[in-house]
Design goal:
Layout (H helix, E strand, L loop, with lengths): L1 H23 L5 E5 L3 E3 L1 E11 L4 E2 L4 E9 L4 E5 L2 E4 L6 E8 L3 E10 L7 E10 L1
């Protein structure tokens, strides 16, 4: 009887510690930072870095599951462009290939999951396309 009580207590402590560890994680501690604030209109590659704000460290193993680029900042949200994630050689830097049809301000919206964290990192970054 005593062994089963000890096991149950150990399981309870392990569960509480697991819950406390996940409660400390906060996706608000992460953000995408725009590396290419200005690109030429037409075919372009836009680079962003995912950063853990408290430590300043780049996060290389995130899963980007949502991406969109549109001209919302110029009042034309319905004007979108194709966007694809392309490979990057720098850890924590994510590159996106797109074709910006006209000069102006474009909103790059991203959603990502960071390994070991609960919730979604979401940012909207403004890129200026020039002629």
């Amino acid at each position: 009887m005593q062994r089963s009580s000890l096991r149950a207590a150990a399981v309870g402590v392990a569960l509480l510690m697991g819950m406390a560890g996940s409660a400390l994680a906060d996706v608000k501690d992460y953000e995408f930072q725009l590396l290419d604030k200005e690109v030429k209109s037409g075919a372009a590659v836009i680079s962003v870095k995912l950063v853990h704000k408290p430590s300043g460290r780049a996060i290389a193993d995130a899963v980007i599951f949502a991406k969109r680029i549109d001209m919302g900042p110029d009042g034309m949200e319905m004007m979108t462009a194709p966007i694809d994630l392309v490979s990057s050689t720098e850890p924590g830097v994510y590159r996106f290939k797109t074709d910006l049809g006209m000069a102006g301000e474009w909103a790059l919206s991203l959603g990502a999951k960071v390994q070991g964290e609960t919730g979604t990192v979401e940012n909207k970054l403004i890129v200026k396309a020039t002629q």
